[in-house]
TrEMBL record:
Keywords: 4Fe-4S, Cell membrane, Electron transport, Iron, Iron-sulfur, Membrane, Metal-binding, Repeat, Transmembrane, Transport
Name of the protein: Formate dehydrogenase, beta subunit
Gene Ontology terms describing biological process: cellular respiration; formate oxidation
PROSITE patterns to which the protein is assigned, alphabetical: 4FE4S_FER_1, 4FE4S_FER_2
Cellular compartment(s): Cell membrane
Domain 4Fe-4S ferredoxin-type: 29-59, 92-124, 125-154
Major subcellular site: membrane
Entry-linked InterPro entries: 4Fe4S_Fe-S-bd (IPR017896), 4Fe4S_Fe_S_CS (IPR017900), FDH_Electron_Transfer_Unit (IPR051555), Formate_DH_bsu_Proteobacteria (IPR006470), Formate_DH_C_sf (IPR038384), Formate_DH_Fe-S_su (IPR014603), Formate_DH_TM (IPR015246)
Protein residues bound to [4Fe-4S] cluster 2: 48, 161, 164, 176
Source organism of this protein record: Polymorphum gilvum (strain LMG 25793 / CGMCC 1.9160 / SL003B-26A1)
Cofactor mode of binding and number, as noted: Binds 4 [4Fe-4S] clusters per subunit.
Domain of life: Bacteria
Signal peptide interval: none
């Protein structure tokens, strides 16, 4: 379970007015997942469960390699497998993707959350859930363009990958990166990961993958989990990775225009009230009203 680390400074909190400036701006971090190096061994999935003390009950085999079948409150990272028939190259490709929170620079979950402090963003870019403040409303699920958070039926709290914020606070990398036997997962500053990704993309292009590229979607101002893809022009080939993820317009409206319109309306009502008081003075009960009230009371008592 995630908790606020003293070594990680906050820059944003859900349902809180204004940003909280970090005491010291940290270097932005990122996890780079190179799909071309992944062998689908699930060591990352197991390492995540081990480090976070999660246990998932075995599920029924439905003829796919994904196990469990989907992300859930006890599975924060999941290997997804896709067979892709590349008709242009006349070959069958095995596309394997590690699924989990993307830690968006502009996180839709945080924007949608109505509970103060239930979702936070650290100055290094990591987006974390604070279970103690979660009310289990599920708005974070609606706000996420990657369909990542899951609500537990046991405690009605939302859960997702924390990017091992507790390990990062102590100067270590995420457990999944530590466990990966092929170095398909690397962790470091975002600038370094982008530079590494560019080297890998050039290598893939020289090997015949002309459309190889880095997945760092601009629709959410970039992410702190990025992919190197063989087919960067078609991200959805990789088990439905969104081609152009964006925060829902409903969330943007609710937390944007509607919020400020409501504040403007309340401000206008306050100004009208003050103006009425200054012009007409406080409300007073006249002698006639007092007399009528006494008659009404005497009538009821009789």
């Amino acid at each position: 379970m995630a908790y606020i680390q003293p070594k990680l400074d906050l820059v944003r909190r859900s349902a809180s007015s204004g940003a909280e400036p970090a005491l010291s701006r940290e270097t932005e971090v990122a996890k780079l997942i190179d799909i071309s190096k992944c062998i689908g061994c699930k060591a990352c999935q197991v390492a995540c469960m081990e480090w976070n003390e999660l246990r998932q009950e075995p599920e029924e085999n439905v003829g796919v390699y994904d196990n469990p079948h989907d992300l859930n409150p006890n599975t924060w990272t999941l290997m997804r497998y896709t067979e892709y028939e590349n008709t242009a190259e006349d070959r069958l490709e095995w596309l394997i993707r590690k699924d989990g929170c993307m830690h968006c620079t502009d996180p839709g979950c945080l924007k949608a959350c109505p509970s103060p402090g239930a979702i936070v963003q650290y100055s290094n870019g990591i987006v974390d859930f604070i279970s103690e403040a979660c009310i289990g409303c599920g708005y974070c699920v609606k706000g996420c363009p990657f369909n990542i958070p899951r609500i537990s039926k046991a405690d009605h709290k939302a859960y997702k990958c924390t990017l091992c914020s507790d390990r990062v606070a102590e100067g270590m990398g995420p457990a999944c990166a530590k466990a990966c036997p092929t170095k398909a997962i690397t962790f470091g500053s975002k600038d370094d990961m982008i530079a590494l990704a560019n080297e890998r993309v050039e290598d893939l292009k020289e090997r015949g993958y002309a459309r190889a590229g880095l997945y760092d979607p601009p629709g959410v101002n970039g992410t702190h989990v990025m992919y190197v893809l063989h087919h960067a022009d078609k991200p959805s080939l990789y088990a439905g990775l969104p081609d152009a993820p964006r925060i829902s317009p409903l969330v943007e409206t609710w937390k944007g225009v509607t919020k400020y319109a409501g504040m403007l309306a309340m401000g206008a009502a306050a100004v009208v009230g003050i103006g009425h008081y200054l012009m007409a003075g406080p409300n007073e009960v006249s002698e006639h009203d007092e007399a009528e009230a006494r008659k009404l009371k005497e009538g009821r008592d009789a």
